[in-house]
Amino acid sequence: MSYKRVLIKLSGEGLANKGKHLAIDYELVEKFANQLKTIISRNIEVAIVVGGGNFWRGTSAEKNGMQRVRADYIGMLATTMNALALQSGFERLNLHCRVLSSLTMDPKVCEVYINEKAKKYLRDGEVVIFAGGTGRPFFTTDTASTLFASEIDADAILMGKNNVDGVYDSDPKFNKDAKKFPIITYDELLEKELKVIDQTAASMAKENNIDILIFDINEEDSLIRAIENKIPNTIITREREK
Ligand code: UDP
User: Fold this and answer.
1) pTM of the prediction?
2) Which amino acid residue places its CA nearest to atom 21 of ligand 1?
3) What residue spans of 68-163 are helical by DSSP H?
4) Ligand 1 in reach of 14 Cβ (< 6 A)
5) Distance CA 14, CA 16 (A)
6) Sheet holding 156-161, edge to edge
7) Is 171 annotated as a binding residue?
8) Does residue 140 have a known ligand-binding role?
9) Which of 79, 100, 162 to mutate to test the pocket of ligand 1 (most atoms within 8 A of CB)?
10) Ligand 1 near 140 CB (within 6 A)
11) Dihedral sign (CA 137, 138, 142, 143)
12) Backbone phi, then psi, for 196, in 5-degree steps?
């Protein structure tokens, strides 16, 4: 399928450089920016949902005794920090970019999310980064991705993973015989309880008939090649035959 508007999910952990102890790997951000410039030059609109796991995860803080709702708001702030860092990295390479947050922030920090505004920026060729997840605790940025992809009517979600190139029947990092699915339906994913995305995200993507492409974000030019369907991947879809 040729895409007109895509939503890219970037996990927080994928932005970090553990070797250099950096929460944000600026070289990686530059690589993303260059790829996005190419994608936008092909008249494909790009929205991004960014995670916060490089800074904070609500469930981990809850295990350490923090009230879950408060812990999740900290997580949402973490996604906003990532969004602003991405914006600044993108702008350095003259890529026009807006951060729209589901949490109401001071307007000096970023803009508040309004659906029509997001779509206008996308039509104008600007990258739109959705910050703050869904704006509610007990959700993840995977669910925010399916929510925003539905709201902006994206053709697909491109979900880059760290050193995994698709959906397997067991974890390929621990099982060398793990079998990869070239394509899998949301029903199969839910039934087999495969953990590649959380169940709320999978149910919402199924209901709204949005395909998710899983690929390895660390591959060379992964975003461009994902859009060209020239990278190893798994497609998660509602029905095998469309
Ligand atoms: N979060 C939330 N509501 C949302 C999205 C995120 O409360 O709609 C919080 C939650 O605490 C989560 C954290 O933000 O652990 C970071 O998001 P996520 O774990 O999805 O980031 P990623 O794993 O993609 O880096």
Assistant:
1) 0.96
2) 51
3) 68-92, 115-123, 141-151
4) no
5) 6
6) 111-112, 97-101, 127-131, 45-50, 5-10, 156-161, 211-216, 234-237, 183-185
7) yes
8) yes
9) 79
10) yes
11) negative
12) -65, -35
The CA 70 to ligand 1 mean position distance, Å, reads: 12
Binding site annotation covers 138?
A: yes
Domain ranges of the chain: 5-237
11 marked as part of a ligand binding site: yes
Tens-digit pLDDT profile for the chain (242 aa)?
789 999 999 999 999 998 899 999 999 999 999 999 999 999 999 999 999 999 999 999 899 999 999 999 999 999 999 999 999 999 999 999 999 999 999 999 999 999 999 999 999 999 999 999 999 999 999 999 999 999 999 999 999 999 899 999 999 889 999 999 999 999 999 999 998 999 999 999 999 999 999 999 999 999 999 999 999 999 999 987 75
Q: Which two tokens stand for residue 65?
A: 């005794």
Residue 52 CA, ligand 1 centroid: distance in Å: 6
Q: Which residue has the tokens 């992809």?
A: 149
CATH architecture assignment, domain 5-237: 3-Layer(aba) Sandwich (3.40)
